[in-house]
Specification:
Layout (H helix, E strand, L loop, with lengths): L1 E11 L6 H11 L3 E7 L6 H11 L3 E5 L6 H14 L2 E6 L11 H7 L5 E5 L6 E3 L3 H18 L11 E4 H6 L9 H14 L4 E5 L1 E3 L10 H17 L3
Parallel strand pairs: 1-2, 1-4, 2-3, 5-8, 6-9
Antiparallel strand pairs: 4-7, 5-7
Helix pairs in contact: 5-8, 7-8
Length: about 240
């Protein structure tokens, strides 16, 4: 195990246009970071592009999955792969260029003192761009709702730009995590808090995707609404 090495887990499904942009930016922004692309058999050829990127750089790995299975399962498969490879810090971020790779050094620096670092849109200095009023209200209300139900101080519970120290993921029984989408992000942060890990938020700017279709759906929103209560009832088990 190498505590200084970090791996960005990057789930993809139909990110043909975005993946060739985001991966080189990640590699340039943080020299200590490798990239693990987790592709769910994208029909648009994203998996083949990921393979090309891996052939071009030894810092890029690809995990091919046989079918589309949701964001949460893709992250869990990537986390397990990165843990087995011995990385000391494991990050998650979107492949659609919504998260700025230039923020990676800030997250990694904060992880020297914290167990879980959240890239937060809702702390001082954080922001969202290219969002309409409805999307802004939905996101803020979702985070506030989860915060109140779970009684935790985290301001951005639904964000997907995070850096875990490996001890956090090792302490969570990943096989029992069943949430996807927003609820997946909420559940992992809540479990870390319940286990006494230090969680900090650092400000980021989130820019909505400009290319491709959003994976947001009503099912993801509704899952988050009811799943928060199930997460609370479980006590973060």
């Amino acid at each position: 195990m190498n505590a200084d090495r970090a791996c960005v887990v990057l789930p993809t499904y139909d990110e043909h246009d975005n993946l060739p942009k985001i991966v080189p930016q990640i590699l340039a922004a943080a020299p200590e970071v490798d990239v693990l692309v987790v592709d769910d058999a994208s029909p648009d050829g994203t998996g083949e592009i990921a393979d090309d990127l891996a052939r071009a750089s030894g810092r890029v790995k690809v995990l091919h999955r046989p079918h589309k299975d949701g964001l949460g399962p893709a992250y869990l498969a990537g986390f397990a792969h990165a843990l087995a490879a011995g990385y000391g810090r494991i990050l998650e971020m979107d492949a659609d260029c919504s998260h700025e790779p230039s923020a990676l050094p800030m997250l990694l620096a904060a992880s020297r003192e914290a167990d879980l670092v959240l890239g937060s849109r809702y702390v001082r200095g954080g922001a969202t761009v290219h969002w309409g009023l409805g999307r802004r209200l939905l996101s803020r209300a979702g985070s506030l709702y989860a915060r109140l139900v779970l009684r935790v101080p985290v301001k951005d519970l639904t964000g997907g730009f995070k850096c875990f120290r490996r001890e956090v993921l090792e302490s969570i029984d990943l096989g029992t995590v069943t949430s996807t989408g927003y609820a997946f992000q909420i559940e992992l942060t809540y479990r870390a808090l319940r286990r006494g890990f230090r969680v900090v938020e650092v400000p980021i700017t989130f820019a909505d995707r400009r290319v491709g279709k959003s994976k947001m759906s009503r099912a993801i929103v509704f899952e988050a609404l009811w799943k928060v209560w199930a997460i609370r009832a479980s006590g973060g088990r």
